[in-house]
Amino acid sequence: MENKTVLAGNLTFLTLGDLLQLLGTDNRTGVLRIINPHFKDPGLIYIKSGNPVDAQTSDKTGVDAIYALFGWVSGKFEFNSEEVKHQDVIKKRMMAIVLDALRVLDEGGIETFGDASAKESGQDIKSAPAITTAIKGPFVEYSSVVDEDEYTDGATIVAQGRHGNWLWVILEGIVDIFKQTEHGQALVSSSGTGAFIGGLTTILQPENSRSASAVARGTVQLGVIDTQQLSSEMSTIDPEFKKVLLSLDNRFRKISSRYTDILNGHNKFDGLPLNIKPMIRQGDDVQKVFTILNGEAHIVRKSKNGMIYLMTLGKGDFIGRVPFLNIDHEPSFASVFASEDLKLGILDTEKLIEEYTKLSVTIKNIIEYTTVCLSATTSRACA
Amino acid sequence: MAIFNIQKREIECKIVYYGPGRCGKTTNLEYLFKAFKKQVTGEMVSVDTEGDSTLFFDFLPIGLGKIKGCDVRVQIFTVPGQQKYSSTRKLVLKGVDGIVFVADSLEVRREKNMLSLKDLQQNLKDYGLNISRIPLVMQYNKRDLADEGMPIMSVEKMGRDLNRQLKVPSFQASAIKGTGVGNTLQECLKLTLISLQRELKWSQ
Top-level CATH class of A124-232? Predict the structure, then answer.
């Protein structure tokens, strides 16, 4: 079967309603693919002689899927002119679908993704208490900002568990970061100007899902970061150095989960195995950076409130002192306990520093912001 | 902006019925749909929007003849007046070729008419169109209510309120009985086609 893209473009230029009308006017037959950075899989609409006959997204089919796709207000589309063998699941005519979907959209019945008019998804997000001090990021590097987005109060910028490789920097306003826990949504932190939405993982492993939700508090101006440029920069870096960055992000993800556990009343030692031996004591003079080859390393901090288990690191993670990362963990502010099977390798510190100095300002800013968040969340967990 | 469908050899233009809520836009379309059943292609789409329905159907007018060998097909829409239906309004008004403004003759709706006309002007402006240039026809609807002793405004008064500056053709109508409905559309189609011809310099 011949299968070719005959029309492609950007949804912010030509909306789904316009597209369906265009294909309807010309009685076209084929498959319309909608690609949105918030979703891993594209949405598909099957069109026979100008009328949609079936559709699918990752979790919906038929007319429900088409309605959901009207919420994908930005992204790309492709129309492939091809034979459509799908059964006519959708009986409504094209214009009936377009008009009704827009009505539901205007009435707030369709969740929108990737636009200033994004509506809140109706979760229990607002009931969480507000953290008043927002973590600010480094000075914004405007040369990497390719576009600006405005979000209104309560709008969800990213949703936990969704896929997406967009990265933003906050230009103005405050964004609350929520994590889904067993007791509902918990506010983990608040971010201010210079802070990033989406982290190192967004650039290094774009296939990963979002680890938290970000919601605008008041009107928020965001700068869209050119992730393609950053990804191509990252593709040339040393693999060992890349592992350190991923491990840094991993630490931040782990401390956020730990913090929400503690908020939910978990014991300060919950999850810490018994059969462990001390490897680095808090305050030890350690200058080296190790990588875990096998086994586990447990990070524990001694604070004025006693000992607190922070996280367990595994294969591929680093421990020790990374010269350019100012983390409030081991060796100065935390101890490391080793599992019996722990095996370590030593990383070339000089090489890491050399790789770090080559990075662009934006990547350095993201690293700095991640370490600030890591330290702030650790302090909150220990408070 | 009419669409030329080369495949079907059709010129497709868009007529939108605008006016305050409950003024009779829907009744106009329902009457047209029934009265010109043979010329309607496909069924009427009705979407329940708050305060009013949004309607749509496709229509092949008879008697307009062909233009440059192409049939003329007309898409007829009503538009929801409520502020929140901005996506629908945007889609409906995008590329509109002609407008019928339906005004309510009831005395108590006087202000609503004026506000709606102002609203139309603003909406068109938002989409880069000028109310004094676009083909526009006024319809003073619900004239029959006078027979039932309801207080309605005189045609002169409505003209002063709504049409003093615009000076577009106006018709008295009773959409519920069908009086004036056909004439209104006919005039709007005529103005629309003249405007298209002028725009494309076909007359030369």
Answer: mainly beta
